[in-house]
Design goal:
By secondary structure, the chain is an alpha/beta fold. It contains ten helices and 13 strands.
Length: 306
């Protein structure tokens, strides 16, 4: 527990959302003072820890977020419009949030004397690579405006360190899932969709042949990575670090774990496989995943009453 003399303050953008709200809980448990910035377009007020201060503002409004961010020890930037398909249909709107909004956060942090910004990046920056596992030295080949926008955020993180001396680190997430996810939302879309279909008593719909694989990473593992990235003396120079389980599982296997009747529907444009190399996370942060997907899905099934 942090004493009053050393109590730190963190700002979590998107802190009413899926991953952000879990991080807020963890920070509160560690004794942090926490301010949440969220416009509640996707986040839910009831997910915000009552010991945190919720500011219902939009990251596109630099004037409103600047005084909240000023003087914070750490800023964790989760706020985004994260749907790939939505970004394809609405590239300008998603760019305003995911690029301009992110630039606002970095600018406010730099001018406000923040110690470090931890940026939530995305494995979608890799696109469809021919070799696995995916490692941070690979060139970015995004296949959607969302993937490009999140990659631009990484570049801003790097530049704000190089040009302005702001301590930054970018964490590339791989298919985050766990309690409190939105079954209609972007994170863990497959697991969320399948659970909702089983709850609704309709067949589980798998795109293509179901042999495409994903690296599913539990939200509590992601939260640990964020706190390590904020507090570690080994990072802060604009590094990009994969946060993935280091194990890929087929969509057919996920459907089997969730249970129920299965139907197959036409394939869509998406990478065939994702698999994270998490060696850099272990080396720089001392982080490695602790929760296997079988365990995580079993927990979600129990929560759903199965």
């Amino acid at each position: 527990m942090v004493t009053n003399e050393t109590k730190k303050r963190a700002v979590v953008t998107g802190g009413a959302g899926f991953i952000g709200s879990h991080l807020v809980d963890a920070l509160i448990a560690k004794g942090y003072d926490v301010d949440v910035i969220d416009n509640l377009s996707a986040g839910k007020k009831e997910h915000v820890n009552p010991d945190a201060i919720l500011h219902v503002v939009d990251i596109r409004n630099l004037e409103e977020i600047s005084p909240i961010i000023k003087g914070a020890d750490y800023v964790f930037h989760f706020a985004a419009l994260p749907r790939v398909q939505y970004s394809i249909e609405n590239p300008i709107e998603t760019n305003e949030v995911n690029v301009t909004g992110t630039l606002n956060v970095f600018s406010a942090a730099q001018k406000g004397g923040v110690s470090r910004v931890v940026y939530s990046a995305s494995s979608s920056a890799y696109g469809d690579q021919e070799t696995m596992p995916l490692h941070e030295e690979m060139s970015a080949e995004p296949l959607s405006p969302y993937g490009l926008q999140k990659y631009i955020g990484e570049q801003y993180a790097r530049l704000f360190h190089v040009v302005y001396g702001l301590s930054t680190v970018s964490l590339r997430y791989f298919n985050v899932y766990g309690p409190r996810f939105d079954p209609e939302g972007a994170y863990a879309l497959v697991i969320g969709k399948f659970l909702k279909q089983r709850t609704d008593g309709v067949p589980i719909s798998i795109t293509g042949d179901g042999e495409q694989t994903r690296d599913f990473t539990h939200v509590r593992d992601v939260v640990r990575a964020n706190i390590l990235a904020a507090e570690s003396p080994s990072v802060g120079n604009g590094e990009v670090i994969n946060i993935g389980a280091g194990r890929n599982v087929s969509i057919n296997r996920i459907a089997q774990l969730i249970g129920g009747e299965i139907v197959y529907v036409p394939a869509r444009l998406e990478p065939k496989h994702t698999l994270a190399s998490n060696e850099r996370a272990l080396k720089l942060l001392g982080w490695k995943p602790e929760i296997q997907v079988e365990e995580g899905i079993a927990e979600l099934l129990r929560e759903s009453g199965f």
